[in-house]
């Protein structure tokens, strides 16, 4: 279930929110003046979201070091858009 709390709860009920984030393994969405402000994740949740991305970036860095080929930002985005649309 999605857990949405006012950002003031971060200050006033930190231990409760911390426990919720860690025990439920789900993010807590914080709002300010009725609008989304931020999302709280445990370190483990964050790692699940980013570890594979960081590995891919490391692979790309290694490949770039082994190659003299360089692309402009425009070339990269054109190629990415083309692959997405295929």
UniProtKB/TrEMBL annotation:
Domain of life assignment: Bacteria
InterPro entries (UniProt xref): Antitoxin_Phd/YefM, YefM-like_sf
Pfam family, one: PhdYeFM_antitox
Similarity comment: Belongs to the phD/YefM antitoxin family.
Record NCBIfam families: phd_fam
Main function: Antitoxin component of a type II toxin-antitoxin (TA) system.
Annotated protein name in UniProt: Antitoxin
UniProt organism field: Syntrophaceticus schinkii
């Amino acid at each position: 279930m999605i857990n949405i709390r006012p950002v003031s709860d971060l200050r006033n009920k930190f231990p409760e929110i911390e426990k919720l984030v860690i025990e439920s393994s789900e993010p807590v969405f914080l709002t300010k003046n009725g609008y989304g402000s931020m999302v709280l994740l445990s370190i483990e949740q964050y790692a699940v979201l980013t570890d594979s991305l960081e590995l891919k970036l490391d692979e790309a860095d290694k490949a770039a070091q082994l190659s003299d080929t360089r692309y402009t930002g425009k070339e990269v985005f054109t190629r990415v858009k083309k692959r997405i649309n295929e």
